[in-house]
Amino acid sequence: MKSGSLISALSIFIVLSGSALAANTDLVHTVEQYRDVEKLDKINFLPSLLPVIIENSDVIELTDEQLHTLLEWRKINREDVIATMNEVARKRVEIKEAALSPGISSARLIQMQNDVFRLQREILEYKLSCRDLVIDTFTQHNWEGFFLVLAEDEMGVTIPELYISKR
User: Fold this and answer.
1) 3-state secondary structure (DSSP) of residue 46
2) Which of left, alpha, beta for 61 (phi over 0: left; psi -120 to 50: alpha)?
3) Above 50 in pLDDT, residue 37?
4) What value does the mean pLDDT take over residues 2-7?
5) pLDDT digits (tens, 9 = 90+) for 46-96
6) What contacts 104, CB < 8 A, 6 or more positions away?
7) pLDDT level of residue 3 (50, 70, 90 thresholds)
8) What is the CB neighbour count within 10 angstroms for residue 60?
9) Cα dihedral 60, 161, 131, 81 sign
10) CA–CA separation, 81 and 74 (whole Å)
11) Measured between alpha carbons, how far is 26 from 104 in angstroms, rounded to an integer?
């Protein structure tokens, strides 16, 4: 009888240990997956339209001067924007890992989250700077071409009625 109970207890222990190990492995996998998938695109709230504009400059019918202006902004700001996005991704993973540590206080987690908010604000400021440049650079004709590109790429953006009525 004791032998059967011991085997049952060991079986339950092995099953529970395996479940805990699987959960830990899932957590590591999730953190690694988060680092890869979420890294750049989900860090900010404004769409990254400059690459779309540059790639489709012919459809948008940008002049050489307009294209040069946009490329110059990208040349000056691209590395800083990407570095800031990478820092947000790194800090998000850091927060998730810290949240699982009983030695980390709630106040520290709030401080870590505030760091992420500050970096997200920096990204927003870069993107608004780029947006302002696009607004100042584009003509009415460029906007029409740009909205055609967005519609073809199915970016989920509807063409403002102002531009539809002019066509």
Assistant:
1) coil
2) left
3) no
4) 46
5) 778 899 999 999 999 999 999 999 999 999 999 999 999 999 999 999 999
6) 98
7) very low
8) 23
9) negative
10) 9
11) 22
Which has more confidence, 165 or 111? 111
Q: What gap in Å lies between CA 162 and CA 117, rounded to an integer?
A: 35
Token readout for 137 is 């650079």
Contact (Cβ atoms closer than 8 angstroms) between residue 127 and residue 46 = yes
Q: Which residue has the tokens 């691209």?
A: 78
**What are the start-end ranges of the E strands in 9-132?**
none
Tokens representing 15?
Answer: 């099953």
Sorted by where each begins, the domain ranges of the chain are 38-165
Are the CB atoms for 40 and 89 separated by under 8 Å?
Answer: yes
Backbone angles phi, psi at 154, to 5 degrees: 50, 55
Report how far residue 27's alpha carbon sits from residue 31's, in angstroms, rounded to the nearest whole number: 6
Quick one: three-class SS letters along 103-158?
Answer: CCCHHHHHHHHHHHHHHHHHHHHHHHHHHHHHHHHCCHHHHHHHHHHHHHCCCCCC
Residue-wise pLDDT tens digits, 105-160: 999 999 999 999 999 999 999 999 999 999 999 999 999 999 888 888 766 666 66
Both tokens of 141, joined, read 């004709």
